[in-house]
Amino acid sequence: MINRTIAPAYKEINQINLIQATPRLLDNNIKLFVVNAGEQELVRIEFIFNNVNWDVNHPLQAFITNSLLIEGSRTMSSYQISERIDSYGAFIQAEYGFDHSTFTLYTLSKHLDDVLPLVKEILTEATFPQEELDTFVRNQKQKLLISLEKNDVVTKRIFNNSLFGDSIYGYIVNAEDYDKVDRNQLVEYYKAAYQPNNCIIIASGKVDEVITEKINSFFGNGWENTVQSTKNVFSIPQKKGSLYYTEKPEALQSAIRIGQISIPRNHADFPALQFLNTVLGGYFGSRLMANIREEKGYTYGIGSGLVSLQNVGYFLIASEVGAEVCTLTLEEIEKEVNLLRTEPIPEEEIELVKNYMLGSFMGSLENAFSHADKFKSIYLAGLDYAYYTRYVQTIKHINAQQLLELANKYLDYNSFNIVITGKK
Amino acid sequence: MVNFNRFKLDNGLMVLVHEDPTTPMAVINILYNVGARDENPSKTGFAHLFEHLMFGGSVNIPSYDEPLQRVGGENNAFTSNDITNYYITLPAENLETAFWLESDRMLNLAFSEKSLDVQRNVVSEEFKQRYLNQPYGDVMLKLRPLAYKTHPYMWSTIGKELSHIEEATIDDVKDFFKKHYSPSNAIMVVGGSVSTKDVKILAEKWFGNIHSGEKYIRNLPVEPVQLEERREVFYADVPLDAIYIAFHVPDKTDQGYYEVDLITDMLSRGNSSRLYNNLVKERKLFTDINASLTSSADPGLLIIDGKPAAGISVQEAESAIWDVLNSFSSEQVAEAELNKVKNKIESTMVFAEMSLLDKAMNLAFFEVLGDANDFNKETERYLRISANDIIQRAKATFTKENSSTLLYLANK
After folding, report:
1. Quick one: DSSP state of residue B271?
2. B200 shares its domain with B237
3. What DSSP element (H or E) covers A314?
4. Domain residues for B167?
5. What order do you get walking across the sheet with B300-308 strand by strand?
């Protein structure tokens, strides 16, 4: 008979193999990065543009420009773009983030010759038809009305604003902002942001020399820089330790989001602070989950995170909890944060989190796309692959004393902004 | 094409192995052939509550999550109306830890009162977070009982009401385990950097001596064919009116399912789809419209949901949806349109092969439906559909008698 009370032997992870991106310069000096891997005959090509020219009077300019890329170009209507892309079984996706606007193509390699010209036209000759803008604004305003009924959304808006003020990271979008958008702003932004010297391309999948050359012939030629744009740079106002409470008398649950300004990925302490964050609220077995969900049953889920942006990082804890236990939850969160500052983390827990994080890192390298994502994280933070070596080393060798110091340096409950929507 | 080997242990546990040497990881996916449809109508939400309790410690191992995290693994689970599915991803070198954990909880649970107490609360909070404290969050709780009058798809996996979860007892938990959680009611898929030979040895070692249990024979009431249009109006504190229309469609093993799946894509996949282009872009009657399928083991639903634009009456909006649905019978389906949705499906299938976990889950689900290899035949089933099949299927599906309409209206 086997003894089921004894865990099988296990091995620690020693080797993590990253498939590195190969750089290449297109004829017009766009940087192309290629992650060539995988069995399937398919590719993902991402065009990443910095967000530029932030103007608080036109807060939606970059977002709507990105959203309307696929809504009309010189020879194609919105309908035709969609129909033609779909007919090749390809997928296109415009995605807007705080720091970057991205346009992504997914396609089977056999259709590249048909699909790339369409993408080229979208990126260089989008037309932003007035009618499409009107439709988009109408739809978005309705969506906003629904979002504002969601406590977690309301909470997030207030939280970001509490940390970042009216910068692109913190601006609270209202319905009137949509009314202020006119087509000229989009055309102007398109000219400024969607041009070669503001673009990098990351291609992943089975991307051989032939495909790389195709990318060069379409995007390295016949696409020239026009105007100069201004990079977004922010000074972040520090409003620490404030409480923002929005009462919703009918709420069954309260949404909570608390946290403070922190460090971005390119800071030397970032990997170690990620470790500390994982202990507190970064995985299913974390202290916040163990206490507030698995011990007390106050919530379906609670987590913490360390977010890295271009200019700054921030730390947050978020949950939706039973309205009647909102105050109790905050007390428990405070206890857990303070515990990290006063008590060394037991060796056994450090060992567990170490193994969990290494396994999770290895598991996140599933395919060519995930390897490309890993590259994107470092490249956009101004780092190189040495970061991952340092990340793995930090996780392997971190000790309780270092974590105690980090907690005292970076996690201060009294400095957290606390946002609650619901009841308390 | 997803290759696999298959063997069965003497106790009835079905094991599938998908060898994928391109990854250093392994997955174990265990599907128990029990879902919300197998619940007692007065104790709904139980299969899902039980899924939570599967993480509350087993007979020889007090904590499930901790030893797994210690070897670099992650896990989760979901419950649907049809099945309950548990999965682990971990470094392939530590595969045996997953066998140890999964076999012990198949052997027996700890049945802790404390775990039951806590998970009742956790699931109640999940109920509130996902269904009650969200605008339109409870719509499926209203639409299912309108569309199903007999079949247990009339309730959602979360259950009919909070009280069912609050009243669950430890005896209910024990009975449910005995009835459904045994080798003869489970399918295990092991995938990744593993060999069938090693998996066989590990499966025998850890699962081989678990008592087979009684095979659960499912005998659910069949939903009678709907003969009359059904309608319900519901008012809530939401910002906008919404329209939901559900149609009965074939189950996932039926060729008709593949036809309605293509129809669903023609209706609402992408900017050039019929509902979106016609009602949002051209006529500007809606700000949002979608069509979706429940993809279930028993006959499911095709659901259309839309939000009319400001100033458009619900009546006008609803009748415009029908205009689009009726276009399948009044106009030809162009080959180009059919090819468009087929190509999209074909490439989706190729992209799906990039995820090890997705492959393992799909093999398990198709195995419980009859044969894991049917997963590999899906593309062919889509490709053989003709324009005429689409027209006939649409005509049969989009009738008033086959529809259940829920008007979810804003309190003025």
Report:
1. T
2. no
3. strand A313-322
4. 5-207
5. B230-236, B403-410, B242-249, B300-308, B286-293
- Cβ B28 vs Cβ B88: under 8 Å: yes
ipTM of the prediction greater than 0.85, yes or no: yes
Task: Tell me the three state secondary structure of residue A399.
Answer: coil
Same domain flag for A294 and A187: no
Distance between CA atoms of residues A138 and B309, nearest Å? 8
B 334-393 residues with CB < 8 A to A: 336, 339-341, 343-348, 350-351, 353-356
Q: How far apart are CA B331 and CA A253, in angstroms?
A: 49
Chain A 93-122, CB below 8 Å of chain B: which residues? 106-108
User: What range defines the domain where residue A378 resides?
Assistant: 243-422
pLDDT > 90? residue A379: yes
Last residue of a domain, one of A186, A204, A219: A219
pLDDT digits (tens, 9 = 90+) for A26-67: 999 999 999 999 889 999 999 999 999 999 999 999 999 999
Rounded Cα distance, A264 and A279, in Å: 19
The verdict on residue A417 lying in a domain is yes
Cα–Cα distance, A202 to A224 (Å, whole number): 19
Compare CB distances from B125 to A41, A80, A253 and report the shortest one's residue.
A253
As to burial, measured by CB atoms within 10 angstroms (0-12 exposed, 13-18 middle, 19+ buried), residue B168 is buried
Task: Specify whether A318 is located in the same domain as A247.
Answer: yes
- For residue range A91-113, what is the model confidence (pLDDT) as tens digits? 999 999 999 999 999 999 999 99
Instruction: For residue B114, count CB atoms less than 10 angstroms from its CB and return exposed for 0-12, middle for 13-18, buried for 19 or more.
Output: exposed
Say how far apart CA B14 and CA B185 lie, in whole Å: 9
> Mind listing the pLDDT tens digit for each residue in A261-305?
999 999 999 999 999 999 999 999 999 999 999 999 999 999 999
